[in-house]
Design goal:
Two copies of one chain form a homodimer.
Chain A lengths: L1 H7 L14 H12 L10 E6 L2 H7 L23 E8 L9 H15 L3 E5 L4 H8 L5 E10 L5 E5 L9 E2 L5 E5 L2 H4 L3
Parallel strand pairs in A: 5-7
Antiparallel strand pairs in A: 1-2, 2-4, 3-4, 6-7
Helix pairs in contact in A: 2-4
Keywords (chains A, B): Oxidoreductase
Family (chains A, B): Belongs to the nitroreductase family.
Pfam families (chains A, B): Nitroreductase
Chain lengths: 189, 189
Amino acid sequence: MIKDLISRNRSYRRFDESFVVSTETLRELVDLGRLSPSGANRQPLKYILSNDPENNARIFPALNWAGYLSDWDGPPEGEQPSAYIILLGDNDISQSTGCDHGIAAQSILLGAVEKELGGCMIASIQKGKLREALNLSERYDIVLVIALGKPVETVVIDPIATDGDIKYWRDEQATHHVPKRSLDEIIIE
Amino acid sequence: MIKDLISRNRSYRRFDESFVVSTETLRELVDLGRLSPSGANRQPLKYILSNDPENNARIFPALNWAGYLSDWDGPPEGEQPSAYIILLGDNDISQSTGCDHGIAAQSILLGAVEKELGGCMIASIQKGKLREALNLSERYDIVLVIALGKPVETVVIDPIATDGDIKYWRDEQATHHVPKRSLDEIIIE
């Protein structure tokens, strides 16, 4: 059931860093993005894969982690992602990726969950820093980074409290809580 | 296998219009969007559902169909969508939906395919006309329309020809062909 996969696909930010995600796995995941819809079928998305510790260490410092957790600087050593898929917009094809990167990223993460992996779409990126780390040509815009690995945290969905606060938080057992709007709140007609 | 669902999820534009998509089905599909990732967990997406002929007839003329098929004005009567899910951005929550609508729309369409339905994400919308048809408040931006129904066309993926043309086309049997870039073309490192 797709609902099961979508429900299990939470945004994970703590991983067993020793778990290796193979290049073949990353290519299979990108293939799911490739087979997904693209506005006017332009397919402007290009992908950079990383799954070795040296490359990963160059990418990690350019990412901003969990903005609402002000007392947490992101995953410590040992819990950092084992792999990244970096989504680029190819300006030689189109100046905009529309919402193609959202479509492709969801396909990729659902594929990751099916493989007992997990990850997080990260849009809060220090793009200049990452461009430099990747030695990336101006031809490409950085649009999204998907962090991947074997999750070592529990993430649960809660109803939104009466104050309407949507900020995720962690309880004393380090379980990550994500308040989600109800179906009745989001369907307006 | 998620790859099977993603592969079967092609953009369908011709439907058995007599096939009824229930409100319950539409709500189940929106729930898949609800459970999908949202940038900074803001969840600015709101949804309007339509599955009755009168409402559908108000929505249809505001949509632009298959831009590359210059000799086709969109599905004729009898082959129009049975239902629509309209994705809105709630400006009271956020001025931008980021790529949330892409993420949610992919979840919704994968759910539709699992239910033996199909559809098309439509971003080429006459927004003023649709706003008027829906009597929609300025609080909401129209970001995407998902057309849904029981597909009555065959859509196939082809490799891109040597001329690099990505425009979809229909052959003499009315099979819809979609050229997709290869995995080696889209992975740049």
